[in-house]
Amino acid sequence: MYSEPIELRLQKLKQEQELILDRVDNAIALFDYSHKLVLFNQKLSQIWGFSPEWLQSKPTYETVFAELVTQGFWSEVQKKQLASTIEQAEVENVSYYIEQSNGVCLEVYVTVTSDGGRLCTFRDVTTYQQTLKEAALTQANLNAEVRRLAFLLSLTERLQPATELREIGQFALSYLVEVMGAAFGDVKVIAGKGTDRQAAIFTNQISGQFIATYGEVAVAQMQALLNQGVPYGQGLLWEVVETGKPIFVEDYYKNPKALAGFRHPAIGQLGIFPIPAADGTIIGVLTLESRSLQKLQEAPQQDMLMAACRTLGVAIERAQAEERLRQINEDLERASQMKSEFLASMSHELRTPLNSILGFSDLLMRQSAGSLSDRQIGYVQTIEKSGQHLLQLINDILDLSKIEAGKTELYPQPVSIQYLCTECLKMIQPRADKKRLALSLEIDYRLKNANLDERRVSQILINLLSNAVKFTPEGGQIKLASKLAYGSDLAKEYRLDRSPINPTTPYLCLEVKDSGIGIPREKWHLLFRPFQQVDASLTRRHEGTGLGLALTKRLAELHGGTVSLESVENQGSVFRIWLPLTEMWQESIINGQLSSVSDKQQITDKQQLTDRKRVLVVEDQVYNQALISEVLELEGYAVELIYDGSTMIDLVYSALVTSESLPDLILMDIQLPEVDGFEIIRHLKAHPLWQKVPVVAVTAIAMAGDRDRCLAAGANGYLSKPLNLDELISTVRSFVNKN
Questions:
Q1: What DSSP string describes 399-468?
Q2: For residue 571, is it left (φ>0), alpha (ψ between -120 and 50) or beta?
Q3: For residue 614, which of 64, 503, 575, 638 is within the disulfide window of CB 3.0 to 4.6 Å?
Q4: What is the DSSP-derived secondary structure letter of residue 267?
Q5: Is-contact 694 665, C-beta < 8 A?
Q6: Are 658 and 688 in contact (CB under 8 A)?
């Protein structure tokens, strides 16, 4: 077998070693036991610019290091330290860090070889060291920011509970004097305008050392000067006010602008700092005196001090705003009281002659003193009508002023909601008839009674109904409805007040809906302002004072409720009154059960309900509702009303209805809005709970075969309009007793 010469094999091995070394990122230098360089890689020649031929001449490490000093890479000290490190490597492996003059950072690792040589590895750690420096700088900045934020947080915590200027200044100044190591300090607030401005002191902080230095007499003189205030132009502080920049003074007593009372040789460094408002206006100055070796302008807390001045400015501005607001509220309250007293006085003065006008007008219309011609009667009627209009205006103004002055009291008592609504419709009916307006009433049978101030709620409904009549063209429609609703329903409504709402709170919702002229959305916010009308021009078509809705809103709020509205221009409006049924106010029947504060009263009322038979009347015409209710209630029946067919369908499938809450009889009108009576009867007779309740069809359709159609739909009886009252009573009595 052919054997390769040993010299050739050694040469190849050396070439392979050099190839491996050249691929290493670090510079490698191997020195033998006599300190001569016997092995190196290309990286070693590249980092310092050594020629490979020179390195191959086997220089010692002392020669290599000396050459690095000659070329300016290393200093003599670094050379000696590294040489010492290599000598120490006889005992153990060591490392050494060098930062060269060209900015390159090297980590030198020295390892002892088996034959006593030294293997030196030079690793470039420049990027790593830069990262460490940047991290250290970032950490230092972060620590400084943490200190600044801690300072501001502590100051803000001290200022937060303070409401008066003096209290704010004392908190801030005590803290700043302590943090800055100041001997004394004060805060002045700038008052006035232009050249009439004055820097008024409202707090200062003086250390015991300062008093001991100057003596109590000198300190008292300085205090007296501060108490007088510093007029515009006197002292250095006005330069700070004008420029918005701090001033630092070493020898204050030598400064020509120094205040006479403060020219004491012992005063040390003085710093005057601006206190800005939110808009940048200087509203005060902070003065600190310090005798520490470090100057105030060079203190590390400088940025914190300026930030503290901004915080102090916000606090002072807030306190000043609160003081102005308190003064404004007092003035408004005084003006409101004077207005109420004036209105009450004027109301009395106007009522006295108005009483004579209305009284004599009534006497003239009675013609007890002699006959009047038709023309004269017309004149008297005009006088009486104008007097009544003036009286209503006076009453509205007086009511509104009493409410705003907090002098109106409510007298709640159990009120029948059906009776309340019916009476209000009766009062408005003559005015509606003149415009051929159709009035209707819808009552939620679940809510029968409520604890209300009947007179005030009637006033609310009359105001809303009067507006509906006024703004609805001839031939239009007006509907009054009452229903049980909850806070979740109110939350969806448009209302002027944004007070929080409990979604589970029950409400009596009284609704007035018309087909009138409507209100543009952009003018909704004007509706509930006193003396404000949507059309306030001189050419408006509808008379009025603009007090009705304002009074309505105030009365609703007295009950703990509110007002909401919907309106579409040229289509109509819906106003809703929301009166909460809380424990204090509630006196209502829900699902046939009475909710009352008094258990004894509750038991009595339940017993009365148990004794009375209940008739559910499904009828859309308000007069028919009133007639049937009046007749049946006189017979001892409890009457519940539903206005339209869709409401009745909702009731049929309501989960709230139980067998105990079912009525004893249903009087069903056939011509109903939305869903007719035939369809409702079919649903009733198909429902497992409702099918046992007898149904009597009541209809104005009296053609041949109509009775059979009603009975075929499932009705148990039939009555035709106009109703025969005796027949109505006997029919109801027969079905109720049979049931």
A1: HHHHHHTT------EEEEHHHHHHHHHHHHHHHHHHTTPEEEEEE-TT--EEEE-HHHHHHHHHHHHHHH
A2: alpha
A3: 638
A4: -
A5: yes
A6: no
In whole angstroms, what separates CA 728 from the centre of its chain?
A: 58
Beta-carbon count within 10 A of 333 CB: 11
Each residue of 520-544: pLDDT tens digit? 888 887 777 654 454 433 334 444 4
pLDDT digits (tens, 9 = 90+) for 436-460: 999 988 888 778 888 888 888 888 8
**Under 8 Å between Cβ of 695 and 666:** yes
Chain segment 73-125, per-residue pLDDT in tens: 999 998 888 888 888 776 667 888 898 988 889 999 888 888 888 888 899 88
**Tokens of residue 320, six digits:** 């000043």
Query: From its phi and psi, is residue 406 left (phi > 0), alpha (psi between -120 and 50) or beta?
Result: left
Mean pLDDT to the nearest integer, 349-357 = 68
- Residues 265, 266, 268, 270: is their CA dihedral positive or negative? negative
Mean pLDDT, rounded, of the chain: 77
Give, for 282, the enclosing helix (H) or strand (E): strand 282-290
pLDDT in tens, 197-216: 888 766 666 544 454 445 55
Instruction: Tell me the percentage of the chain whose pLDDT exceeds 70.
Output: 74
CA distance linking residue 251 with residue 265, whole number of Å: 8
Helix (H, G, I), strand (E, B) or coil at 666: strand
Structural tokens at position 271: 């710093």
Residue with tokens 């006005």: 238
Q: What is the largest CA-CA distance in the chain?
A: 165
CA distance 209 to 238: 28
User: Tokens standing for 573?
Assistant: 């409006």
As given in the structure block, the two tokens for residue 73 are 């890479």
Mean pLDDT value of segment 618-627: 77
**CA-wise closest residue to 479 among 423, 425, 528, 548:** 425
Among candidates 382, 476, 389, 378, which has minimal Cα distance to 433? 476
Angle between helices 61-70 and 76-88 (to 10 degrees): 160
Mean pLDDT, to the nearest integer, of 397-426?
A: 77
Tens of pLDDT, residues 457-511: 888 898 899 889 988 999 999 999 999 888 888 888 888 777 778 888 889 999 9
How would DSSP label each residue in 672-733? -SSS-HHHHHHHHHHSTTGGGS-EEEEES--STTHHHHHHHHT-SEEEESSP-HHHHHHHHH
Hey, which residues does 640 pair with through a beta bridge?
A: 616
Residue 606, pLDDT score: 40
CA distance linking residue 577 with residue 563, whole number of Å: 5
Between the alpha carbon of residue 617 and those of residues 383, 644, 649, 718, the distances in Å are 44, 11, 14, 14
- Give the model confidence (pLDDT) of 586-603 as tens digits: 433 333 333 333 333 333
Q: How far apart are CA 12 and CA 6, in angstroms?
A: 10
- Which pLDDT score is estimated for 190? 84
Residues making up the chain, counted from first to last: 739
What is the bridge-based pairing of β-strands 247-249 and 269-276?
antiparallel
